[in-house]
Amino acid sequence: MKFIFPSFGLTLFLLLANIQPSWAFKIEPISRTFTPSGSNATQSYELISNKSEPEAVEMSVVKRSMDLDGKESYEPADDDFLIYPPQVILKPNTRQAVRVTWLGDPTLQQEMAYRLVSRQVPINLKKPEIGKPNGTRGKVEVLLTYMGSLYVRPTDVQSKVVVDSVTVQKNDQSKSTIALILENQGSARASLRNFSLNLTSNGKTVILKPEQLQEISSKVILAKNKRRFVFAYPAELPQQGNVTATFDYNP
After folding, report:
1. Cβ neighbours of residue 137 under 8 Å, at least 6 residues apart?
2. Hey, where are the domains in the chain?
């Protein structure tokens, strides 16, 4: 069963590449690539406490999928990994090693994408004070869930990104936009670093540089996946005729 983590309520989900609040525990490294067999099929992480109070942390791995617009969804991957220890009482200002082992197919032919999830567990680790009732009513706890990137990558895999389609469409303000769909036909993820784009219409070509394509540059396309990117129609590009595209990036 697939599920999407909510971005509201009492639980705050943080992608490690973007947010590291000083008052929270953290996990290092934020991204790891495993091999399906050999010594790199087992790797270690560190949970690091930045707080003056102990915390209960639960570790798990979920399989990562991405739709056409980059929205992620997840499904349990309990059978694919062994995590030891899966639950930790993280003492104040300490580090705790966690070992993760790939248990899946040792002969993978394609890179697999996962998220390593480190979730605070709502356990009261404080001793009750004399004369005060157990528990605190009306208190809102913000529980953190960190999500790191985890890939299982066999040897001799590579990405292969091609243009699937280029279409001109109108946005809600009736302004012209370009919808570019890229397909990764390869067996490994593609990170579109320093992505530049050449658009041609009616014999004229306009070059869009990486700084003009923040919607695309450095985005990830998983193996055998497609991504759609929508951006403003360049003013210099003629609006008559079909639009074609070529691109370049640093793999």
Report:
1. none
2. 11-152, 161-250
75-88 per-position pLDDT tens digit = 999 999 999 999 99
Question: Tens of pLDDT along 132-184?
Answer: 555 544 455 668 889 999 999 999 999 999 999 999 999 999 999 999 999 99
Q: Are 87 and 58 in contact (CB under 8 A)?
A: yes
pLDDT digits (tens, 9 = 90+) for 89-141: 999 999 999 999 999 999 999 999 999 999 988 876 566 666 655 554 445 56
pLDDT given at position 25: 86
How many Å apart are CA 68 and CA 245, to the nearest integer?
Answer: 19
Helices (H), 3-160: none
Give the Cα separation of 13 and 147 in Å (integer): 7
- State whether the Cα torsion 111-65-194-234 is positive or negative: positive
Check whether domain 161-250 has CATH 2.50.20, yes or no? no
- Write a three-state SS string for 169-204: EECCCCCEEEEEEEEECCCCCEECEEEEEEEEECCE
Please say whether the beta carbons of 49 and 91 come within 8 A: yes
Residue 63 CA, distance from chain mean position: 11
Nearest partner of 237 among 182, 180, 168, 186, judged by Cα:
168
CATH 2.60.40.10 fits 11-152, yes or no: yes
- The pair of structure tokens assigned to 22 is 């000083």
Paired tokens of 160 = 């292969």
